[in-house]
Amino acid sequence: MEAYLDNSATTRCSRRVQETVLRMMDCDYGNPSSLHKKGMEAEAHVRKAAAEIARTLRVSEKEIIFTSGGTESNNLALIGAAMANRRSGNRLITTQVEHSSVRNTMAYLEKQGFEVIYLPVDKDGILLLDSLREAVNGQTVLVSIMQANNETGALQPVAEAASIVRQINPAALVHADAVQSYGKMRIRPKKEGIDLLSVSGHKIHGPKGVGFLYIREKTKITPLSFGGGQQSGMRSGTHNVPGIAGLGEAAKEAYEGLEEKTAHLYSLKDRFLEKTACLEGVTVNGRTGRDSAPHIVSLSIEGVRSEVLLHALEEYNIYVSAGSACASNHRAPSQTLQAMKLKPELADSTLRFSFSVYTAAEEIDYAAAKLAEIVPRLRRYVRR
From CA 281, how far away is CA 262, in angstroms rounded? Predict the structure, then answer.
């Protein structure tokens, strides 16, 4: 049996997405910038995808810019907004639990002369709003907050944070990294006060190498790539039509019957937590109820290093992550778990289990049973 429980790292493409991508590659392969029929057909698919995505957010399709994924979307949002609004101030605000594509971009902007404030979180990894109130001032140009944490599933109060920002400095922009939340919950950027929002296709059963950035109309942002002026000059370069069409299909599919899909994910999460609750020395990191992301569970398993347990589970075709997939190859301590003040020995023993709408209850039971079997055996080999 196989249990793929690493859906926060990537998901498999849905059948509908696969068929859409193949059709673009095989039949509708024109360049959207070409003026002939083939080009216009390709352009129609790009516009259709933008319209599908815009519909899920209740925004205009003109506010959707296609990118290569979440990392590029975050880079464009942060660097583009910071540079475009530099005359208004030089303060940028984010949290201590952001994805590396935000954290490292902020570090780059610090080298460009910007002041970056990293806000603390509580033991559950939730932003402390009082610290935001203290940080926002007249020099603030951008606040970036991850909507759902990629390691723990913590849901941040983005709408409340945006309201605070608006009260203190109405000119400041609010960016939300929605890579782990889009397709799992209803998001209304205009209602929630979000000016910029990043999404990646391969987290919602779409293709890899494609994503989008929502940019609220009239938001000042400087492009990072220059060329033929595609996408209103915001992101030049030939459109990735197969990827974009696949992303549009994935977005449409993700929001079909969303409530039922979310309920399924929460039921899987509850089942997994119940099955693993009996394991000795296991700590659940963060919240686990309906005030957390439906598809992510972070477990610290005392006495067993995460990398060792990850490979032990792999022997049984059970696939999980030791923290963020983007950082797991570097074996660096999780800054998210550090910010939550988790003990170092527990942070070094943490695994992330993440589910999708295609995850079966049998996979949950199989993984929990193997954990119960493997963990005591591995602990016997720990040096004392």
Answer: 29
Question: Among candidates 371, 363, 364, 368, which has minimal Cα distance to 309?
Answer: 371
Q: How far apart are CA 201 and CA 189, in angstroms?
A: 18
For the segment 97-145, what is each residue's pLDDT rounded down to a tens digit?
999 999 999 999 999 999 999 999 999 999 999 999 999 999 999 999 9
Which neighbouring-strand residues pair with 211? 67, 200
* 3 state SS of 95: strand
| Residues contacting 263, CB < 8 A, separation 6+ | none
Residue-wise DSSP of 347-358: HTTEEEEE--TT
Q: Backbone dihedral region of 125: left (phi > 0), alpha (psi from -120 to 50 degrees) or beta?
A: left
Containing H/E element for 377? helix 361-379
Per residue in 342-384, pLDDT (tens digit) is: 999 999 999 999 999 999 999 999 999 999 999 999 988 765 4
Per annotation, catalytic residue among 13, 27, 278, 326: 326
Structure tokens at 240: 């990735």
The H or E element that residue 199 is part of is strand 196-200
Specify whether the CB–CB gap between 136 and 297 falls below 8 A: no
Check if the beta carbon of residue 211 is closer than 8 Å to that of residue 68.
yes
CB 324 within 8 Å of CB 97: no
Average pLDDT rounded to a whole number, residues 274-295: 95
DSSP 238-284: ---HHHHHHHHHHHHHHTTTHHHHHHHHHHHHHHHHHHHTTSTTEEE
Is 326 a known active-site residue? yes
